Amino acid sequence: MSDAEIMAHFADPRQHLYYGHDETGAHIGMVEFFVADSNEIEITYFGLFPSLTGRGFGKRLMAGALDLAWRLNPSRIWLHTSSFDHHSVIGFYGACGFVPFATGFEIIDDPRIKGTLPRDAAPQIPLLDMERGAESENVARRRAGKP
User: Fold this and answer.
1) 34: which strand partners?
2) Most buried of 24, 135, 143, 144, CB within 10 angstroms?
3) Checking DSSP bridges between strand 27-35 and strand 15-21, what pairing results, if any?
4) What is the pLDDT of residues 12-42, one digit of tens each?
């Protein structure tokens, strides 16, 4: 997004952006949410510095964000997430009081195969490289003199 697009995005009064800080004032993460016309709030972004996970900062950041969001009297607060975000995110959101209302299975192109991410990124997600497997099998057949 360009600077102008970012400015226009956050000029919308339905968009809310909050930064979390620790006791020293250091930035720990941020939360963005959107108030829909139906008076529902969607948390569109929740981010914590990776070095701070597992230390309680995420729960504090989410508690603060939910406190601010509930002050707007929405009919509900929801979010969309995936285990691709982080391997423990489903449990984290459950501990913050969210309950699943739908689950699904998505098939996407793996950025590790395309080279967008290193092959060892996201080790909690199995790497299914069908093309490489098929290619290796074909090379082996050719070496053995089979079609």
Assistant:
1) 15, 42
2) 135
3) antiparallel
4) 999 999 999 988 999 999 999 999 988 999 9
